[in-house]
């Protein structure tokens, strides 16, 4: 089998089953595991999959920059944002992550809601400028331009001074085994800090992120409390999450 044929087969298996196991595929094709791993490395370098221990998972399309992500699954993000906004109670202190789905969250906050939103995202802060009753606290740091959020030691130090009731987390990959992932190590560190200083962490899970993986692990699934997913998400896709103790809300 030629290299391009092997790669096409790998991508077809990944699309059909949601994962590639190198050992199984090498046995199926009567090839060495080294050959399959080399193909996986090359496909990962092209951004076509995410290598994990023993094989590969789909690469998340949510790794595009902020402007590129605005065009992905817009209706689903609006529904998820609306459901997340409805979870916030008057008087709460809330961490809101950066991202296109969390923008939808703050756009759906009712005008009568009084609460404090703490964010490291200038985009989120600007969205709330005209909200009459929301107090906004902006966490500073080095601007990570790809996601338009503050990262670095100063951001993590500032986060440690807060105790939030709830944290709405954005990610680029969600997988029951790999956990919650994103495309930058410093961004992952900030998300971990936010989660650890909140009583509850809820992940906003638009469809393109489910079953996908990115290079940097934020947290395992058992360290969050809930997922908000789009209506129409297949039951078999979601079956593993309640088993990990994660509550699933359908938007």
In total, the number of domains comes to 2
| Helix-and-strand structural type | alpha/beta
Count of helical regions: 11
Helix content: 25-40%
Classify the oligomer. single chain
Q: In whole angstroms, how far apart are the ends?
A: 45 Å
Instruction: Give a count of the beta strands, DSSP E runs of length 2 or more.
Output: 15
Unreliable runs: none
The CATH class of the largest domain is identified as Alpha Beta
Order of helices and strands: HEHHEEHHEHEHEEEHEEEHEEEHHE
Strand content is 15-25%
- The strand line-up of the biggest sheet is 6-5-4-9-12-14-15
Mind describing the biggest β-sheet? 7 strands, parallel
Radius of gyration: 19 Å
Shape call: elongated
State mean pLDDT (0 to 100 scale): 89
Please tell me about this protein's structure.
This protein is an alpha/beta fold. It has two domains: 3-59, Arc Repressor Mutant, subunit A (Orthogonal Bundle); 66-250, 3-Layer(aba) Sandwich (Rossmann fold). The protein is built from eleven helices and 15 strands. Strands 6-5-4-9-12-14-15 form a seven-stranded parallel beta sheet. Helix 2 (22-29) crosses helix 3 (33-45). The longest helix has 15 residues, at 3-17.
For this entry, give a set of tags.
251 residues; single chain; Rossmann fold; Arc Repressor Mutant, subunit A; 11 helices
Give a quick rundown of the structure.
The chain is α/β, with parallel strands linked by helices and 251 residues long. It is 37% helix and 23% strand.
Topology overview:
Elements: H1 3-17, E1 20-21, H2 22-29, H3 33-45, E2 50-52, E3 55-57, H4 66-69, H5 74-85, E4 93-96, H6 100-107, E5 115-119, H7 122-127, E6 134-138, E7 142-144, E8 149-151, H8 153-159, E9 166-170, E10 173-175, E11 179-182, H9 185-196, E12 201-205, E13 216-219, E14 226-229, H10 235-238, H11 240-243, E15 247-250
């Amino acid at each position: 089998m030629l290299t391009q044929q092997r790669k096409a087969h790998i991508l077809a298996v990944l699309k059909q089953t949601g994962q590639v196991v190198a050992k199984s595929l090498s046995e199926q094709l009567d090839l060495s595991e080294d050959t399959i791993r080399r193909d996986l490395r090359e496909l990962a370098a092209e951004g076509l999959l995410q290598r994990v221990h023993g094989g590969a998972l789909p690469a998340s399309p949510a790794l595009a920059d902020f402007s590129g992500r605005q065009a992905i699954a817009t209706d689903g993000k609006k529904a998820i944002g609306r459901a997340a906004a409805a979870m916030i109670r008057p008087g709460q202190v809330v961490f809101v992550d950066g991202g296109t789905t969390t923008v939808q969250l703050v756009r759906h906050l009712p005008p009568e809601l009084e609460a404090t939103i703490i964010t490291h995202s200038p985009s989120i802060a600007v969205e709330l400028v005209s909200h009459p009753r929301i107090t906004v606290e902006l966490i500073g740091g080095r601007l990570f331009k790809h996601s338009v959020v503050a990262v670095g030691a100063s951001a993590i130090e500032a986060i440690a001074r807060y105790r939030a009731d709830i944290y709405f987390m954005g990610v680029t990959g969600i997988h029951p085994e790999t956990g919650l992932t994103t495309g930058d190590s410093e961004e992952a560190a900030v998300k971990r800090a936010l989660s650890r200083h909140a009583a509850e962490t809820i992940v906003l899970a638009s469809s393109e992120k489910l079953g996908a993986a990115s290079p940097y692990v934020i947290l395992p699934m058992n360290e969050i409390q809930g997922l908000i997913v789009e209506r129409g998400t297949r039951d078999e896709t979601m079956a593993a999450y309640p088993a990990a103790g994660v509550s699933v809300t359908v938007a």
